Amino acid sequence: MIKRKTISYGLFVISSIVLLRYAYKFTHNEITRSQEVSHNQHQTSREDSGAGSARIFQQHQPINPENLSPLNNVIQSSDLQMNTSHQPAAFNNSSLDSAASNLYGPFLNTSRLIQALVESLKSKLAVSDPKVVVKNIENKCQAMRIEYNDSCNDAERICPQKVLPENLKARIEQLVLRDSLQISEEYRNAIRNMTDEISGYHDIIIVGGLSSNHYREAQSLMKHVHEELFPVLKNFSFVVYNLGLTEKEASKVRQHCRCQFVRFPFERFPPHFKTLKCFGFKPTLVRALIEKANIVLWTDTVFKITRNITTVIDRARTMGIQQMYLPTNYPNPSHTLEQTFHFFGDSPCAHMAFNQVAGGFGIYHNELLTKRAILDPWYACALKAECTCPVNQRQVQRCPYPYSTKKIGLCQRNDQSSMTLILSKLFRQKYFDFVINLNRFNPKSKIPAFYNYFEEIENKTKVNTN
Length: 466
Ligand SMILES: *[C@@H]1O[C@H](CO)[C@@H](O)[C@H](O)[C@H]1NC(C)=O
Ligand SMILES: *[C@@H]1O[C@H](CO)[C@@H](O)[C@H](O)[C@H]1NC(C)=O
Ligand SMILES: *[C@@H]1O[C@H](CO)[C@@H](O)[C@H](O)[C@H]1NC(C)=O
Ligand SMILES: *[C@@H]1O[C@H](CO)[C@@H](O)[C@H](O)[C@H]1NC(C)=O
Ligand SMILES: *[C@@H]1O[C@H](CO)[C@@H](O)[C@H](O)[C@H]1NC(C)=O
Ligand SMILES: *[C@@H]1O[C@H](CO)[C@@H](O)[C@H](O)[C@H]1NC(C)=O
Ligand SMILES: *[C@@H]1O[C@H](CO)[C@@H](O)[C@H](O)[C@H]1NC(C)=O
Ligand SMILES: *[C@@H]1O[C@H](CO)[C@@H](O)[C@H](O)[C@H]1NC(C)=O
Ligand SMILES: *[C@@H]1O[C@H](CO)[C@@H](O)[C@H](O)[C@H]1NC(C)=O
Hints:
Blueprint: H1 2-6, E1 10-12, H2 17-20, E2 30-31, H3 41-49, H4 51-57, H5 93-100, H6 110-126, H7 168-176, H8 185-196, E3 202-211, H9 215-229, E4 236-242, H10 247-256, E5 260-263, H11 281-289, E6 293-299, H12 309-319, E7 321-325, H13 338-343, E8 357-365, H14 368-383, H15 385-388, H16 393-396, E9 399-400, H17 414-427, E10 435-436, H18 453-465
Parallel strand pairs: 3-4, 3-6, 4-5, 7-10
Antiparallel strand pairs: 1-3, 2-9, 6-8, 7-8
Helix pairs in contact: 6-7, 6-14, 7-17, 8-11, 11-14, 14-17
């Protein structure tokens, strides 16, 4: 009886284990999201042998942090304010970066903010791998024979950008100053409340979310986190969001998770947040948690990293972000509706050179560029149904197969769509340095994908007390 009940809950996975079962049946009639987060051993070997993956793997070369120019040279404390009461606050150098990039503490002087972000972007591009670049970025719809009309439409006041700008200032301005990407006071406060709910300031926060559909997979991930990450990481907190569990399920999780277990406050956000497949919660909680740690690491139940996690984390400290990526993924416009591109001011064709990231794993570093130019626009898009979930998600949840890379918007991948779009705009030909193929860090896990971890813990406790 109890077993049966427990089967109904679990760690929420963006791309569930159900999807994982299809992981490399590429001959199947449809491609599901799980294929994009699969951590299957077979896939690993297949990609390791591919020429494409060889290019991606070059990005793990060590970086000399001394080549990064410190932000502090650019930002003056007098340009900052601590909160919206418009009183300038005094900062020492150590508090400067986090204060500057605080959601509720904008720069007083916008041009200095842009300048600081450009400097930071420049320093990251300077340490990227010169040999690995995205090709054919400037191809237009017509040249690629894509049937998409991206000419200006005065009636609908749409005039999409056809080539992503090379100029660094233009890149930053398009992500930071664009009207559609501004976050209202209401939603800045909502984030702030979520930040306040988390106790302590940590080097690392590992975060996941739970909903009522994948119980044993969730327990499998929890066992992985406890047994394989806890011993390796120092100074961290494990945060788990309740995205809709029953009381009983929630109390089991609270009892065994060794985590900060918090409820996601859906009522403070727009109605589309309640559709979990729109993934509004993810950019939101990452943006809230980044104020409480140097590193936020989001992980799905299907993805278990078991090797050299600190190597990957250290890379994120330098580059600002490491978002999971599989070379087998599709061009972002194939899996993203045109509305999302328009929200950012772009033609979908301008993004054809960039394959979509995977949402199952991402590492975010608490620094100005990551917060202002990546996580804020990501959150801003998540807040607007017209950007992240422009139509009924059920209609665009499935990506048809066989698909055509000449077609735009075959399906919608929400947070993955917008994250890819942002990274493409910001890093352009250096995109590969900010995404990471984690497969080689992810050998076949010793822990089965389905596991009654809570029962195991309870059995052990019984033995001990007997
Ligand atoms: C905002 O700034 C004012 C004036 O500096 C200060 O009194 C207030 O406590 C601050 N509020 C928060 C939430 O930091
Ligand atoms: C810098 O400011 C922070 C927060 O305002 C404070 O905790 C810290 O002690 C200060 N460091 C120095 C070296 O003054
Ligand atoms: C902050 O750092 C800059 C450059 O590293 C230095 O010139 C400045 O004196 C420092 N300011 C404070 C208040 O320590
Ligand atoms: C903002 O900073 C720029 C560059 O440092 C400077 O030229 C400008 O005068 C500043 N504006 C204000 C209103 O302080
Ligand atoms: C493309 O769209 C524009 C604006 O709506 C329109 O004027 C033009 O005729 C369209 N071109 C084609 C080939 O459909
Ligand atoms: C945010 O938290 C504050 C203080 O805990 C509380 O007074 C306020 O009602 C909360 N705001 C929302 C929208 O829940
Ligand atoms: C943990 O890391 C945070 C952020 O770097 C730091 O402020 C805190 O002092 C560290 N705590 C311990 C016990 O090392
Ligand atoms: C893990 O780290 C060790 C030592 O830093 C290195 O030799 C090894 O190649 C790394 N493994 C992977 C999969 O990157
Ligand atoms: C827990 O104990 C029961 C009864 O001894 C056993 O049937 C079950 O397999 C155990 N579960 C686990 C996960 O060890």
